[in-house]
Amino acid sequence: MINIFEEFKNRGSVFKDKKSLDHRYLPTHLPHRKDQITSIAKYWIEALNNVTPSDITVYGKTGTGKTAVAKFAMKQLKEAAVGEDVYIKTEYIRCTDYNTEYQIIARLCQQMGRKVPNRGWTKGEILNTFRDIFKKNAFAKNMILIVVLDEIDILLKNDGDGLLYTLTRTNNVSILSLSNYLEFKKDIGTRVKSSLRDREIVFPPYRADQLVDILNERVKLSFKEDTIDDDVIPLCAAIAAKDEGDARYALDLLITAGELADENESNKVFGDHVREAKDRIEYNKITDIILTLPAQQQRVLEAILKLTQKKEEITSGKLYDAYKEVSKGDSVSYRRIFDFINELEMLGIISTNTVSRGRGKGRTNIIALQSDTGILENTLYPI
How many angstroms from the chain centroid is the CA of residue 69? Predict the structure, then answer.
């Protein structure tokens, strides 16, 4: 029998190297983010003068280049520090992977060469180990540490602001926080806000023409010559621009379209591959979200689906009645339903709109489904 992998190896492909289409790939040039890179450099330049930089908070929706710019600036600072009379360390932490104060302090210690267990020490033990790193080195230089905390809102929701309290009260530490949400600071207490000397930088969504430039650069690195039809890149850019200017989504569309071309044994990627890629990505994204929802939220979503299929206007009261019917006695309070509605709206699965019923009749929340009913049916009622 022929080895199945040999069979795949012998098939043709539109790709020459997929790595540059990965979200984690750091290109040598970041189109349309020079202003944001310059803003970070303006503060971090202080480190080259042996001064701890101000803390920085970067806001921007998913796919606006926050992580890439932070890593690019870290790389540039490291290069600029070569040959200078300074001792600078930059460390990147993704808060989806390390989401407690202990985990992050332990990870920082490990990245800087200290053997620290992932669990088991007291808070005092691990903080003493961390702060011991900041003693003068053999050349009598104080270390300046710049910590990049990506998706910091996840840390704050999971473990509070204890880490920020620790870092802001440790000499020679500067924090660069990345968040998708402008309001994430509501989870930070007054005592930490007073010592978080942050400067704020906002990343705007990419426009369609900017996404075209980004995709053109990646295509040169990742696809073979003459394998991309003329309408593919503008179409990927236009679809992603409608989805809040998300460069990650644009790259996902491009790589998925290429994979579909390979599956269909086409020697070229066409617009139809992009449209099919959009449907596949949307299906997978919504399915993943729904499957990870708690059971009670799934029931709320099931109630919204049932009311939508009946073509009924969905008010909070009507939704709660439908939810109780779905739950069959295992239901939460009416007040708790509002939390579920807000969370589903944040995920983009539903929308809410407050309408006035006229004088003396008050205002009512109208809930509407924003996802394809077929996807919801297949996920909530698997065969």
Answer: 14
